[in-house]
Design a protein that fits this description.
The chain is an alpha+beta fold. The protein has five helices and five strands. A hairpin with a 6-residue loop joins β3 and β4 (about 105-115). The protein is globular. It starts with a helix and ends with a strand. The model has no long low-confidence stretch (mean pLDDT about 95).
Length: about 130
């Protein structure tokens, strides 16, 4: 029997494979998010936040902790609009590098994407400001 956990892991892998050219070739830091436990990012995103690898970031259970506390509600609102209302958004977000502790000003574009309409993912594109 396939558990929901395993199912979510598989659909995130499939979405990452589908978007592999974008993840690898974009000049932007990108992450694909289904939920806190099921997400992937590109190397540029992991590097921006000071993680050793995309896998290290993906294992983190509280991805919003990388966002400066004052900006977290705006990110949650943008995520809600994208995942529930299918509305893309653009916002300024400050993130923290875990190695240096420095705050980095970014512009985030968040886009809703589905896998054949079953699951809603959000794809986040970050550029330094």
């Amino acid at each position: 029997m396939v558990t929901q956990e395993h199912h979510h892991e598989e659909i995130v892998k499939a979405m990452a494979a589908q978007l592999k050219p974008v993840l690898e070739k974009s000049g932007q830091a990108i992450y694909i998010y289904l939920d806190d436990a099921h997400k992937v990012c590109n190397k540029k995103f992991a590097d921006l936040l000071g993680y050793k690898s995309p896998a290290e970031w993906a294992k983190m259970e509280a991805p919003l902790s990388d966002v400066v506390e004052e900006d977290q509600d705006a990110v949650i609102d943008a995520y809600t609009n994208a995942s529930e209302k299918m509305v893309a958004g653009c916002l300024d977000v400050r993130v923290k590098n875990i190695e240096t502790g420095k705050t980095i000003k970014t512009n985030m574009i968040i886009v809703p994407v589905t896998d054949s309409g079953t699951h809603v993912f959000t794809v986040h594109f970050l550029s330094r400001k």
